[in-house]
Fold:
Amino acid sequence: MKFKDSFFHTRENVNKKPLVITRPIFLGFNYYSIFFILWLFLRFIKVILFKSQFRNLLQSGHSAVFDSLKRGSKKRLDFNFWGKLPARQTVVVISSELAALQMNYFKKKGFIERLYLGPNIDWDFFKNSLPYTSGIIVPSLEASTGVKCVSYENYKKTFIWPAGVDTEYWKKTNTTKKNNNILIYYKEEKGPLMDKNTIKNKLSKLKLNIKFIEYGSYSFNEYKKQLDNVKFALFLSREETQGIAFFEAWSMNVFTYVWHYEVKSYKGLDYVGSPCPYLNQALGKYVNSFENLIQSIKNKEYCDKKVSPRKWVLKNATDEKTVTNLIKLIS
Structure:
């Protein structure tokens, strides 16, 4: 088969290395690039409105996922092409609905053999019929139910793939746990949480040095510094599809208490979510009352022999291992 357009190679020269993209591809000043031009215009408006830095203009989606793929790739993946799109065996659009539409068009025309979408595309997009999409990537089982609540047909195409973390960066340097510091991760993005003063008052008898860190208001270095000097952490977030901040804490070998919130709906539809999809006894514990939390702290459950957060991450969630898992899934 010969490709109809000069921007593409013939199928005989199809590139078997998966291409990962976070935005539409610019293919010159022609109708193929309308997706890119529209995307760039919308990005420009967003940078202006939110007073973001212009260096963020060409960034899209969850940067932690894209960065993890780049670190773990070891030349096994290609990323965000400019000017020319070789015929591809596999393309993965991890974010940008416009990029997903552009690649669906090219898949329909036969320029792509397999097309995968996700994990950072809004579930509402999957209300659409996507007959040319080979698979939909979601970061957890809970996230797959989000797709299910908008389209059962697309739900049948989902498979689970969580992103990894940089375990060399997220590594503890202060190995002592003799301090009384605890970190409370506070994320109000998906609903109101209990008042910070209430939390302090309830835990005051334990004489802990409580530090708060709020989602969206810290740098990696600040978060790492806090994790490096705590006995354990308490996370308050109503719902996560993966929870990369958890993975970073676990890589720092920090036991995490997670306040258990029930998530049963998504924009009025039935959806079973989770505050921490990957929590297990090696990583932390759910709590749903201060009595439960205080008793666990007094019993020093965060020091239990079964607790080994970093060991779990090294086995399951390094950048290189998660890229290997992705390549196996899409192959």
Summary: The chain has two domains: 11-161, 181-316. The mean pLDDT is 87. The longest strand covers residues 112-120.
